[in-house]
Amino acid sequence: MSIGTAGFGSLIIILIMAAVTLITRWGGVFVMSFVPISVRVQQFINAMSGSVLVALLAPLALEGDNGARLALATTAFTMLLLKRPLPAIAAGIVAAAIFRQF
Asked: Residue 44 sits in which domain range?
């Protein structure tokens, strides 16, 4: 099956992707409503979020350019210093932008 991107094709693709996203998000909440939240399940959920973050950042650190590495290092340093995510993310973005400007 092939959907062209001319005319309404792009809109159809966006609507399909939105529906799949909603189904997976709501489906996860629905399935978890049947799982009793024990200490072990709570520990798993907490560990899973960290592992997803590492899975996203490790390839960037290994294969990214120097601007990306500087952004990661700046974000990590700012997070350790301030312990607040929003200023750390902003500092990383600014560091990458300045590095790539020059």
From this structure: 38-101
